[in-house]
Design goal:
With about 325 residues, the protein is α/β, with parallel strands linked by helices. The chain contains 15 helices and ten strands. It has two domains: about 190 residues, D-Maltodextrin-Binding Protein, domain 2 (3-Layer(aba) Sandwich); about 110 residues, Periplasmic binding protein-like II (D-Maltodextrin-Binding Protein, domain 2, 3-Layer(aba) Sandwich). α2 crosses α12, α5 crosses α15 and α8 crosses α15. The chain is globular, with a radius of gyration of 23 Å.
């Protein structure tokens, strides 16, 4: 082989190596770091963490930092203040924020349906004199005067059960705390019941100290008293406007999660077991059968947000919602 051939091959190899290097640098440069607030340790709220475990953010050139928060109110304030780029909270948080003059929008649905399960202590359930299999209206009436824990005053759990109970003629005494604290409070007798998502609600039931009183995921409260979407990915409108390609990619991440639930259930269950090591496979199978469908989120619509506005109005929360535009609550 002559010198010219060697030089030619060297140049070609150098060009290929340079092209590969530039490609790798370009990919690294295009990867976007984002912070996403998670409003609770419940399984529905863990959608972002599950997606991370499955490599779905990486697939869309996103490096996601999922930040656990105490409740939806704290998560929303973190997003509004700029401490977080996005927040996974209920769409009702968008309603409440806009009613207060804060330009917050929902980007996409993360979890559809209603995830809140009301659990009573065995002692409190027995004292009501009502069966856990009685008609829902009777079970709601039995909650009158009971001390029930909920994540926050603006939680969809609070809105839903407050409205449904009042319609049945009952007045629940609410107290607010983080979901992980609810189990210990129930066991100590500090509260008589709590409203939580999985896997928190399952713990006292599995332990034999609690009774599932009303099953939110099975729509026992009815559509009238529950939101269409349990969780949405929310952001400040100005931030979403300035980062439209990022918003598009994030929407694709959660769409991919919905597909994974259908097409790769074993991988999703493995991710759940990794994130919740205290759960056994039997419990995960039970929860998955009941709640995994919620991750198959659909595009947000104006009708969805109109329903969420009406849902907040029914709660009796003292805010002005009459002038809110449902279409203005969705980005873009």
């Amino acid at each position: 082989m002559g010198d010219r051939s060697i030089i030619k091959m060297f140049k070609k190899a150098s060009f290929v190596a340079l092209a590969l290097f530039v490609s790798q640098v370009s990919m690294a440069d295009s990867t976007r770091e984002v912070s996403i607030g998670q409003n609770s340790p419940s399984l529905p709220a863990a959608a972002s963490r599950i997606a991370n475990e499955l490599g779905l953010f990486e697939k869309h050139n996103i490096k996601a930092k999922v930040v656990p928060m105490d409740n939806a109110s704290v998560t929303t304030m973190g997003m509004i203040s700029g401490s977080l780029d996005f927040a996974t909270t209920a769409p009702t948080d968008v309603v409440v924020s806009q009613a207060r003059g804060q330009k917050v929008v929902a980007v996409c649905s993360v979890y559809t349906g209603f995830a809140g399960v009301l659990v009573l202590s065995k002692a409190a359930a027995a004292k009501t004199g009502v069966s856990a299999t009685a008609p829902v209206k009777d079970r709601l009436k039995a909650l009158n005067g009971l001390l029930i824990a909920s994540p926050s005053a603006t939680s969809t759990y609070t809105f839903a059960y407050k409205s449904a109970a009042e319609a049945a003629g009952a007045n629940i005494k609410f107290v607010y705390m983080s979901q992980p604290a609810m189990v210990a409070a129930l066991e100590s007798g500090s509260i008589q019941g709590f409203i939580a998502g999985s896997p928190v609600y399952a713990r006292p039931i599995v332990a034999g100290s609690g009774v599932m009183w009303i099953n939110g995921p099975k729509r026992e409260l009815g559509d009238q008293y529950t939101p269409i979407n349990a969780l949405t990915l929310n952001a400040r409108r100005d931030f979403a406007q300035d980062n439209q390609s990022l918003v598009k990619n994030l929407t694709a991440v959660y769409a991919d999660l919905g597909k994974a639930v259908e097409e790769r259930p074993a991988a999703v269950k493995a991710a759940i077991l990794k994130l919740y090591p205290e759960l056994d496979s039997k419990t995960v199978e039970l929860i998955y059968a009941t709640e995994s469908q919620g991750f198959k989120a659909k595009p947000l619509t104006k009708a969805d947000m109109a329903h969420e506005i009406a849902f907040v109005q029914k709660s009796g929360m003292p805010i002005q919602t009459e002038k809110l535009d449902p279409a203005a609550m969705i980005f873009p």
